[in-house]
Amino acid sequence: MSTADGTIRHDWTTDQIVALHELPLLELVGRANAVHRLHNDPNKVQKASLLSIKTGGCPENCAYCPQSAHHREVEMTRDKLMDPAKVIALAATAKTAGAERFCMGAAWRQVRDGKGFDAVIKMVEGVRALGMEACVTLGMLKPHQAKRLAAAGLTAYNHNLDTSPEFYGRIITTRTYEDRLETLATVRSFGIELCCGGIIGMGETIRDRASMLHVLATMDPHPESVPINALVPVEGTPLANRPRVDPLELVRMVATARLIMPASTVRLSAGRSALNREAQVLCLIAGANSVFYGDTLLTTPNSGIGEDAELFAAIGEPDRACMSASAA
Ligand code: SAM
Ligand code: DTB
Ligand code: SF4
Fold first, then answer.
1. Domain at 14-323, CATH homologous superfamily
2. Is the C-beta atom of 138 inside 6 A of ligand 2?
3. What are the extents of the domains in the chain?
4. Among residues 29, 32, 15, 42, which one has the least CA distance to residue 260?
5. 228-269: per-residue pLDDT in tens?
6. SS3 per-residue string spanning 16-68
7. Is residue 60 within 8 Å of 174, Cβ to Cβ?
8. Entry pTM
9. Which listed site, 82, 128, 261, 289, has its alpha carbon 20 to 30 Å from 276?
10. Phi-psi sector, 307: left (phi>0), alpha (psi -120 to 50), beta
11. Given 31, 175, 195, 258, which residue is catalytic?
């Protein structure tokens, strides 16, 4: 097996990635931490705040997603696109609470030109004017739309592969893996950073997980940001009855992602609220260096700000929300 010594490589094979993933856990975490320290500040965990700017009623049929209009049994209030002024005000609040990045998600299959997209452009400009990084996830994107987002100062575009090319058809049939890759290439071609990762715990094999990581790690350059989500099983979705992933599986996934994409920001994303503080710390040691910060993700609960204050206190990073709360 070739080594994962912290060199930035784009020639990983799926077999090599499986072999890393299957290392004894302590060896895997130890190696991942060593590589993490070569490229990143091991004491720095970026806080990103997440907001659903348009909720529910999505025409895609992603099996995991409570926002799909195909899953009629999900209890979900559909909301139309939020007003930019409201979004920018929420971003300002998130900044005061310590968030450095503001991520906005819309339950769209694709961007349509018109009033809605004009409003998103205003949101991006407003968030950037606050001095925060801005990320949006809006579904599929055409080149002229990526160009407008880049001109508005967008830092990154989130568009997940979600799983391996082999397993993809079991999860989504309304669009293809190729569609996903095409949008990613479009985003890249306008100089916008890529935020691209996936979900574990949907019934995929370890090889599927490695195969998804293979697609990511053979991109040149690597996605700047790689969210690793653990499925949040939601009542009414086809994956409602999937068991929660073992936290140590998340640790393995994070560590493997860190080994093969040494300089990317690895985001410990959905599913974090099911981890105790110690499991989260283990993920951070294994190389995760960002979390979503705030009481909700898009539609499901996240680790609360209160719990995160404890987490950040435990790892020794001052938490501004906590400091301003105690100053009040
Ligand atoms: N509609 C856009 C799209 O699919 O690209 C953006 C919003 S979509 C909700 C963003 C990502 O959230 C998905 O790609 C998926 O990885 C993640 N996600 C959605 N539901 C989830 C769940 N129940 N558990 C874990 N991750 C989830
Ligand atoms: C990502 O990979 N995870 C975030 C963000 N990108 C947009 C979304 C998680 C959503 C979890 C389910 C929900 O809250 O609706
Ligand atoms: Fe729609 Fe995105 Fe949910 Fe799929 S993941 S149903 S595209 S909101």
1. Aldolase class I (3.20.20.70)
2. no
3. 14-323
4. 32
5. 999 999 999 999 999 999 999 999 999 999 999 999 999 999
6. HHHHHHCCCHHHHHHHHHHHHHHHCCCCCCEEEEEEEEEECCECCCCCCCCCE
7. yes
8. 0.95
9. 261
10. alpha
11. 195
